[in-house]
Amino acid sequence: MSANSLSYNEQTGVEAAVEMGQENTPTTGTAFSLFASDFKKNEDLKEMLESNKESLKLEAMKRVVGLVAKGKNASELFPAVVKNVASKNIELKKLVYVYLVRYAEEQQDLALLSISTFQRALKDPNQLIRASALRVLSSIRVPIIVPIMMLAIKEAATDLSPYVRKTAAHAIQKLYSLDPDQKEHLIEVIEKLLKDKSTLVAGSVVMAFEEVCPDRIDLIHKNYRKLCNLLMDVEEWGQVVIISMLTRYARTQFTSPWREDAMFDENSDKTFYDSDEEKKEGATPTKPYIMDPDHRLLLRNTKPLLQSRNTAVVMSVAQLYWHLAPKHEVSVVTKSLVRLLRSHREVQYIVLQNIATMSIQRKGMFEPYMKSFYVRSTDATHIKKLKLEILTNLANEANISTILREFQTYVKSQDKAFAAATIQAIGRCATNISEITDTCLNGLVLLLSNRDETVVAESVVVIKKLLQTQPSQHSDIIKHMAKLFDNITVPMARASILWLIGEYCEHVPRIAPDVLRKMAKTFTSEEDIVKLQTVNLAAKLYLTNSKQTKLLTQYILNLGKYDQNYDIRDRTRFIRQLIVPSEKSGALSKYARRILLAPKPAPVLQSDFKDRDRFQLGTLSHTLNSKATGYLELSDWPAEAPDQSVRNVEVLEAVREWTPAVSKSKPAKSDDDKFYSDSGEEEEAEGSGESSSSEDSSSSSSSDESGSESGSEEKSESSEESDQSSSQSEKSSDSGSDKKKKKTLKNKKLQESKKPNKDSDSDEGQKNGRLEKSGSLSGSASSSQESSSESSSESSSDSDSGTELKKKTKPKPVKKVEEKPKTMKEVSLLDLDDFSPAAVTTPKSSFLSPSVLSDLQGLSLSSSTPLIQVSNPVFVPVRPHELLHRMTGKGLSAQYHFPRQPCIYGERMVSLQLTLSNHSDHVLEDIHISEKTTTGQSVHCFRPVERLEPEASVTVSMGVDFNDSTQAASFQLCTKTESFSVSIQPAVGELLLPVTMTEQDFNREQGKLQGMNESSATVTMEPETVSSQPISKKVVSVANVGVVPSGQDTVHRFAAKLVSSGALVLVCVVQKESSAQLTINTEKTIVGSMLLREIQTALSAP
Amino acid sequence: MIHSLFLINYAGDIFLEKHWKSVISRSVCDYFFEAQEKAGEPDNVPPVIRTPHHYLINIFREKIFFVSVIQTEVPPLFVIEFLHRVAEMFQDYFGECSEAAIKDNVVIVYELLEEMLDNGFPLATESNILKELIKPPTILRSMVNTITGRGSSNLGETLPTGQLSSVPWRRVGVKYTNNEAYFDVVEEIDAILDKSGTTVFAEIQGVVDACVKLTGMPDLTLSFMNPRLLDDVSFHPCVRFKRWESEKVLSFIPPDGNFRLMSYHVNAQNLVAIPVYVKQNINFFDSGSSGRLDITVGPKQTMGKTVENVIVTIHMPKVVLSANLTATQGTYTYDPVTKILVWDIGKLTQQKLPNLKGSLSLQSGAPKPEENPSLNIDLKIQQLAISGLKVNRLDMYGEKYKPFKGVKYVTKAGKFQVRT
User: Fewer Cβ atoms within 10 A, N terminus or C terminus of chain A?
Assistant: First the structure.
């Protein structure tokens, strides 16, 4: 190493000389030939850089970068290089940037020359150019340009491109390290960027927050929920940063979930696993701890990240659970942590360290995975030691025999340091588990005859420690050790044995003096540490057995008196004064016995990782076991939770603006005093319409698909109820579904005053549900706004027609719904629409609490379920398909068609009608379907047809759940005597149920299903077909979709949902001259693309 | 976060340095050299080293130390994971991550490092995005360069869009004439067998590696016959986690090229089939400073497939000077410097069990070794996933062409150790 650094120094020396030479070029010229070549090379580069040829410049820059990479000094080329900063060649430009960033700090004045280029680039229409200009500008560490940087950052923070905003977040940190005085201004920018909804920005801005103002926890409040919800979609590095910041945040904002933990047995927690919220109440009836829903939100949203491929993300989730989750939930991280052990050596090292800390406190967590910590001979030593540490921590009465057997193998390891560590580990197990102390001791005694000194020495030391805990029973072990004494050469071991014999000389009264005799003989040739113990032994024996040892003791003390080592001389003198009574010896000698033979507390054998948990897991400080620079302490849980309402997001300016404007369009139903009502209550309203599934019990990541379905059902019921029971009391609030139904206008107002916050649960659950639908980020906000403006004029008529359709088509309670007055429908409609900007076109926007609205905007990923009702199918001629031909069916023929009605057998089923005809000349009996499908779809069979006369036919209906795939459902169609395998392959268009929605709903939903959820194609059409009617006819002929009323003649919109999953399918055909642009948006991309193909064919057909 | 990066070769030369913030003198590496000297083996170098003003976090890969300099608190795994990504990126770009490759492509390396971190914080680590920004060197381009005499650009002409799209791991405008998607299910058996051949510990870890060359934006769905086998999984970010949770199918828009789709751990309850058995007898004699070695390897539970590429590696005790052995099949080598005995067997056949027998000579006078060395076994079984995992089907949506699809199964020995 030293040689290397030396050579390096030499190099820099040369380099410096070159530099100097460079400055003096005109006069000194090439004084040293050695430097000349180097110098010449750079001169040559300079020439190339100043040439007119692009390729020469590029070549030169490549060589310059090569120099920079090797750490050689190329700073004298700065003027030549900086000239090329404005080059048009991208590669050249990039290399110049690389160079600039490296050397600008050293050549500040010259670096200023380049600034104007960047300033110009900051205005470039291309976002990537803007971003890279900001990147380089902020990387040039020249204090003079701080104001320019500040301005650029502020501008970039409001840039339309999220990528530029991300770069701005990075630039904040750079500026802060360059000039900490800018802190206040930078915090303002951070505050602004924290509000950003883009996943691209989130990670970077939190990083900036952590670096610039980690103590300004108040900036997080408003963004907390948004960050939790975005987390899944943030890039992996950002996830790590956000999670660790949220860990700190949560520790200041929520109360401890660990209070009642004493009641939990570590192992019994499995029974509580499934339910989340209930669990807490159920388990601790006496001391109800209700977890803050925000706290729960964080835990829930981080859990899926345990499946990340990035080990840092997994570790950070693990530490989050460790520090924040109720104790019995922490074990969910175990499996993932153990998985990380398969990764690289360095990863193993860090993960094992953290597991070691965890396993001290929570054995149960890792015990099932004990075998994963078995040591392999190929592991690196520090990995082996950590594994050993963990195995020791995990040892208990039940598994100790397995572990000891494993340890036996390790003791024999060729890696002696590891073998020694194993012996210590055995010692620790022995002290921790009293049952095995004897076994361990015997095992260790056997090791005393080992040939390896380190093993023996370690064994003696450990035995010494063990014996100290219970000396009386083990005199034979001491005897055994005394016997081995002659063969042991390691000083530490000899000293330990001597100490042991001295300490327990009363148990071995006959051996002790003999050992002392032997020691007297070899005293002079012993190591110091052994000599000291010999003196000690002599003194102790003198006190207990002075008759036999008096002379020996005096002899040894005399030897010690003239020893070369002053410590030994000193000790000898002290001992002599203490034990040998003389006239001078004072009061002390009376107490000699008590001093020397005082009972000594047994040493505690404990883990190195005992106190590591004072550091946050996964941090550098934890790894080093000391505080690293910039380590931020985790605070203790607050006794009282701070106000949780701070996390409610306030109204945004933009929302206010259009709310009143909207109320004009339909004045009839608006209650003025409902505007801006209490937030808690609003959330409830929203929850009720939103998705009932997330509100009731589970509230975890339940399927959003089913949510939309049941939500719509719920809603119609609510409207019906609201008719009669507008003044129902709020006691019903306890029962989940009731509560929802009764959210009519009036009692909302009542509730508002009486129960302020109780609904935060549902609010959060529902938000979560919304998030799961996550569509495109930036798209939704803008598109919905657009649609609101577009549709405001025609909204009233739209919603009317919409409701009409809706009335008839509810799956089950069809008839009930039909009786409902239209107006009530609209109420419910608005109720659901609440927070979307589009919905605000109606007066019921009064439901739209400001806070909810902005909350949702903050999420930006929100995918509210708008009013979507299953509607009547558009009539199309029945198209029968052959199921069974009469030839193959031996006279029985079967045809099926899709009646396009909601299936009465199950909500997820597609209804089918089967026409069975008997073409044979005899009666067919007992026609039925054998239960099994070979392909796994669930089929609701028709009731067996008992008799079918010749030439008669019968129509039966059945339901098949195709699971939203066009995979054929195969089953056996049986008669009394025969059975035929048949299969039904549905066309993709038949897997749908038409739904109705307003145009603005459509637009909003479409906005949410952008990106990969969207598939589109252009279709050329015959001119004669270009009229509105055929298009919609053609579309509905292939797909069971509902027509969405459209404002424009050339735009046709169709909506449907998948029968099985309930996912929306939106079809949009924009008609042009002789072609049409066909767009399909759906979550189920598979269906989307298949449907696209079908419709495309249908449209292009004449 | 990451302040600087130094690449150091086995001999201790710093052959590349890169700084993302202000420049840190390379003398900081002296602390690393100190630790390296203390550790002896490169594997034993502690991954985190504290120096008075900095922290050094290092990884050792392909005989190169990647030493990063940190100044403030940061999760160490964050840095370690990133450094491995850097190494993987080099591998991806240059085909190998070696000192020579890095030195040859120093400009590309520098450009890569510049894009991967901004101010020490990871910026673009997806290979698809980076390849759009910086084109990997190809033979064709280097030929064009030499012929035309012009240094043609290795930077993308157009600015990448991937970073801004909703599918950040896939570049847009991918075109292939042959559309193909291959999946390799690779399973590794980690096992420790004891002297008598009983399994002390065994588990199966697997990965699904993909090589997808498909035009456009395909949306793939991969389903397994028996997904219940999978106990713990981790995914490439492209996999839709929700679909997996609800339906146990892998639904994803793949990145272009090679990538690891998922890695998994097979349910611990399932008994692991151990494909080979080893009969071994290694003795060191007290007198005469010699030893005896007799190893036989045979197929056990192989599910009817042939076990190939069987290699037995033994780290001999220091006192073993040489080995005089005869192998009935394959060849053996003994390196007296590293004390590693390698017996390359090849294919295992039922009829004739390969055997390695002979004597070992020890250093005279030295005490006989305490412990017998353990055997590390390498093997490969083609067309078999030992856990029984099977891919059911692969569907493609979103594009019209018919891709060529293929699934390959391989079982290998992971950390397969026989104690003696």
Answer: C
Q: Is A349 in the B-facing interface, judged by CB distances under 8 Å?
A: yes
Q: How far apart are CA A393 and CA A366, in angstroms?
A: 10
Helix axes A511-522, A491-503, angle to 10 degrees: 140
Query: Which two tokens mark A538?
Result: 């002599």
Question: Residue A94 — left, alpha, or beta (φ > 0 → left; ψ -120 to 50 → alpha)?
Answer: alpha
B168 touches chain A (CB under 8 A): yes
pLDDT digits (tens, 9 = 90+) for A82-92: 888 877 777 78
CA–CA dist B264, B204 (Å, integer): 9
Helix (H, G, I), strand (E, B) or coil at A197: coil
Return the amino acid letter for A47.
Answer: E
- Of the residues A108, A342, A346, the best mutation for testing chain B's interface (the one with the most B CB atoms within 10 Å of its CB) is A346
Which whole number is the average pLDDT over A945-973?
Answer: 78
B265/A240 Cβ within 8 A: no
Residue B269 CB burial class (10 angstroms; 0-12, 13-18, ≥19) = exposed
Instruction: Pick from A139, A247, A620, A1096 the residue to mutate for testing the B interface (most B CBs within 10 Å).
Output: A620
Integer CA distances (angstroms), A610 to A361, A418, A633, in order: 9, 20, 18
Angstrom distance (rounded) from CA A400 to CA A426: 10
For residues A40 and B273, give the distance between their C-alpha atoms in angstroms, rounded to a whole number. Answer: 68
The reply to whether A935 touches chain B by the CB within 8 Å rule is: no
**Interface contact flag, B71 A629, Cβ < 8 Å:** yes
* DSSP bridge partners of B222: B250, B394
Let me know: does A950 contact A923? Beta carbons within 8 Å. yes
**Dihedral of the CA atoms A814, A816, A817, A818 (nearest 10)?**
90
- Maximum average pLDDT range among A485-494, A757-766, B151-160: A485-494
Q: What is the mean pLDDT of residues A928-956?
A: 74
Please, what is the average pLDDT of chain A? 71
Distance from CA of A507 to the nearest CA of B (A): 35
What's the pLDDT score for residue A93? 82
* B positions 390-409 inside 8 Å of A (CB): 395, 397-400
Give the position of tokens 């042009």: A1072
What SS3 class is residue B254? Answer: coil
Residues in B touching A777 (Cβ below 8 Å)? 166
HEC string for A25-37:
HHHHCCCCHHHHH
Distance of residue B296 Cα from the nearest chain A Cα, in angstroms? 21
A496 vs A686, higher pLDDT: A496
Question: CA A314, CA A328: separation in Å to the nearest integer?
Answer: 19
The Cα B229–Cα B389 span in angstroms is 7
Query: Testing the interface with A: which of B1, B59, B81, B412 to mutate, by most A Cβ within 10 A?
Result: B81
B119, B144, B189, B419: best to mutate for the A interface, most A CBs within 10 A: B119
Residue closest to A199 by CA, chosen among A254, A239, A158, A246 = A239
- Those of residues 240-259 in B touching chain A at CB distance below 8 A are 241-242, 245-246, 253
Most confident range (mean pLDDT) of A256-270, B128-142, B339-353 is B339-353
Contact yes or no for B80 and A102 at CB 8 A: no
- What is the least distance, in Å, from the CA of B370 to any CA of chain A? 7
| Residue A480: band (very low, low, confident or very high) from pLDDT cuts 50, 70, 90 | confident
Six token digits for residue B222:
């991969």
Contact B209, B184 (CB under 8 A): yes
Q: How far is B266 from chain A (nearest CA, A)?
A: 11
Q: Which residues contact B117 (CB under 8 A, 6 or more apart)?
A: B2, B20, B82, B123
